[in-house]
Amino acid sequence: MVHNAYDSFQLLTNCPARIDAVESHNSKLFAGCYDGSLRIYSPQSPSSSEEEELRQDSYLLETTVTGFSKKPIVAMKVLASRELLLSLSESIAFHKLPNLETVAVITKAKGANAYSWDDRRGFLCFSRQKRVCVFKHDGGGGFVEVRDYGVPDTVKSISWCGENICLGIRKEYVILNTANGTLSEGRGTISLNSGAREMAAILDTALLQALLHTGQSGAAVELLKGVNYCDVKICEEILMKSKSYSALLELFKSNSMHHEALKLLNQLSEESKSNQSQTEKKQIFSPELIIEYLKPLCRTDPMLVLEYSMLVLESCPTQTIDLFLSGNISADLVNSYLKQHAPNMQGRYLELMMAMNETAVSGNLQNEMVQIYLSEVLDLHAALSAQQKWDDKDHPPERKKLLSALENISGYNPQTLLKRLPRDALYEERAVILGKMNQHELALSIYVHKLHAPDLALAYCDRIYESVSFLPSGKPSSNIYLTLLQIYLNPKKSAKDFAKRIVALGSFESSDTTKMMESVLSSKVKGGRSKKIVAIEGAEDLLRAGLSSSTDSGRSDVDAEEPMEEGNSTVMISEVLDLLSQRWERINGAQALKLLPRETKLQNLLPFLAPLLRNSSEAHRNYSVIKSLRQSENLQVKEELYKHRKGVVQVTSDSMCSLCNKKIGASVFAVYPNGKTLVHFVCFKDSQGMKAVSKTSHGRRR
Fold first, then answer.
1. Spatial contact of 457 and 447, defined as CB atoms under 8 Å apart
2. Which domain of life is it from (predicted)?
3. Calpha distance 114→133 (Å, rounded)
4. Largest alpha-carbon pair distance within the chain?
């Protein structure tokens, strides 16, 4: 009697494109086609409840996702526990079910021909040419590379086999050991029940017992460190009863029972902490021993290292992070693991990474660290605001840390951070972020009008000025000071202009921005007296000649030609005068005067104009001196040239050539620099040629 292994049913017909991959999700059928489209079919007869399995019914086309892939879809798999659809085409892609939004595309899988998914651990392995790559799902929308292995030939099939990988290469199957990357053929070598192996286990187990009974625990440890065949189950029981923990650790280690060894180390370390009287145990089994045990495992099993390093990360943060660095474990992998299993230590890890090896911290990790700092400050702001204790002028440790990171780290995304800031707080942080976006006018407006801190505004200008002056191709620019001067002269400048610029940056919605900027710009001006500008008589004509030669002539970020609004405008006169007097050498005098109203008193500008004019006069005087010195030097050179040209040589009928000892006669001649030695010009040329040949021959002989 013939038996069929499967019952066959025809679910669909007349698909317009060749189907290369099929997968099901609940009662729906996914067909991956040769043209790169994904066709979704559902049962012809409707069902009152949500079906969980395919039905023995005809299926009709429900949806066609054109352009799902650029190339033919080779294989698909539904990851039901994670509600994802995995597909293999030109690379490996993950889509969220049921709406098929793209979650992740593993670009390194471009050209992959086979894959396997471990749903329990969230591990993906795939083969590409002569490489096998392993990636880990971080629980969200990302995948982190774990390891990359080389294999001798192209992989035809691949499948997870426990924690190892089974590969179909050529005409055989091999096992890839993910711990050390070695390949082995499941064929067995020596049976575990063979007589020789059994006898060796009996002898080594008996020897271990004898050493322990005779008090030779050190020798027992040495036995277990070498190649041995001790029965693990029996020896573990013996060593636990005798409390020979060092020997037990070696037993686990020699049998690659790393999980058991690390659990024991952690247990002994915790007992040492709780029992202060056992000084010996506390000294031997410290948390540092876990780190020492993990060091050789960094290259072979990084995931095991990450799992058990969590036990000591909080008590030994520096040593643990040094373990990650020395073991060359990917910083992105460590950060992803901490984010999922120890989020409270993620910021600490990134801090120590920055302190120990800043070049190893990518821009993404720097951005994540700043985001963590901001989250801490936002939590603090929410807690204190609920108690009505928040003061934006206070700088608790969390804010100091955030401000320092915002100023000194360059790898974060300022626009993303700007969107997270509250509308009515953290103005100093907002100013720093705007500065990173080169929005200097907005940053200075916050320093001046909301923080009421002219000293911070001046320090900000100094940083920008000095950073530009150190650029290889740039020269110091006074533009930033002119921007600050414009803000002091126009404290009531329209909030609408600022709101438009903030909206363009994506910081707030338009209505929120207008309220925020109106609040900023309508704040009462503090520090110094506010009054209308009065009387500057003839200052522009007085300074028109010579001022621009002593300072940079670059234009301001704002239009320097635009006059200040007069009439009802109120200026921060004290801050204007202080700025001009303190940074006169960095401000373009001519442009600064164009920004000031015509009524400004010349007397108030003396602290600015006096050193500026003095500097201009000194520069002019120095230029005149240099010009005179150059003219004098030029005259001296001309005089020396004339003196040498005046030389006279007398050639008589008796004058002889110093080289050939013949008379000069009417031949062309040459005179040596001493003014006395005469030679035929032909003899001089021949002598020069002979010298050159002589030098060449001498060099060849050497």
1. yes
2. Eukaryota
3. 11
4. 139
Calculate mean pLDDT across residues 624-639.
Answer: 86
Question: Which tokens belong to 178?
Answer: 């993910």
Provide the pLDDT for residue 415.
Answer: 87
How many Cα neighbours within 13 Å face the side chain of 426?
Answer: 29
Instruction: Count the neighbouring beta carbons within 10 Å of the beta carbon of residue 308.
Output: 22
Q: Name the nearest CA neighbour of 205 among 238, 240, 170.
A: 238
Beta-bridge mates of residue 669: 680
Handedness of CA 585, 403, 438, 361 (dihedral sign): positive
Identify the CA nearest to 524 among candidates 469, 448, 413, 599: 448
The pair phi, psi for residue 37, each rounded to 5°, is -90, 155
Please enumerate in sequence order all residues whose Cβ is within 8 A of that of 145, keeping only pairs 6 or more positions apart, or say none: 108, 133, 134, 135, 330, 332, 333
What is the rounded CA–CA span in Å between residue 687 and residue 6? 107
Query: Please, which pLDDT band fits residue 22 given cuts at 50, 70 and 90?
Result: very high
pLDDT tens, position by position, 323-380? 887 777 888 888 888 888 888 888 888 887 777 766 767 788 888 889 999 999 999 9
Q: Compute the C-alpha angle 613/619/624, nearest 5°.
A: 125
Q: Which helix (H) or strand (E) holds 143?
A: strand 143-150
Any residues with CB less than 8 A from the CB of 686 and at least 6 apart, and which? Answer: 659
Could you tell me how many residues make up the chain?
702
Token reading at 279: 């000084």
Spatial CA neighbour of 466 closest among 448, 454, 482, 478: 478
- φ and ψ at residue 603, rounded to 5 degrees: -60, -40
Rounded to whole angstroms, how far apart are CA atoms 311 and 291? Answer: 10
Give the DSSP per-residue string, 359-376: GGS-HHHHHHHHHHHHHH
Q: Sheet of 38-43: strands edge to edge?
A: 19-25, 28-33, 38-43, 59-65
- Residue bearing tokens 């290889």: 472
pTM: 0.51
- DSSP class of residue 557? S
Sheet containing 143-150, strands listed edge to edge, beginning at the edge strand earlier in sequence = 114-118, 123-128, 131-137, 143-150
- Sequence-ordered alpha helix ranges (H) in 285-326: 287-294, 302-309, 317-326
Q: Is 6 exposed, middle or buried (0-12, 13-18, 19+ CB in 10 A)?
A: exposed
- Residue 293, Cβ neighbours under 10 Å: how many? 18
Cβ atoms of 186 and 175 closer than 8 Å: yes
How far is the C-alpha of 263 from the C-alpha of 260, rounded, in Å? Answer: 5
Query: What gap in Å lies between CA 513 and CA 508, rounded to an integer?
Result: 6
DSSP string for residues in 397-421: HHHHHHHHHHHH--SS-HHHHHHHS
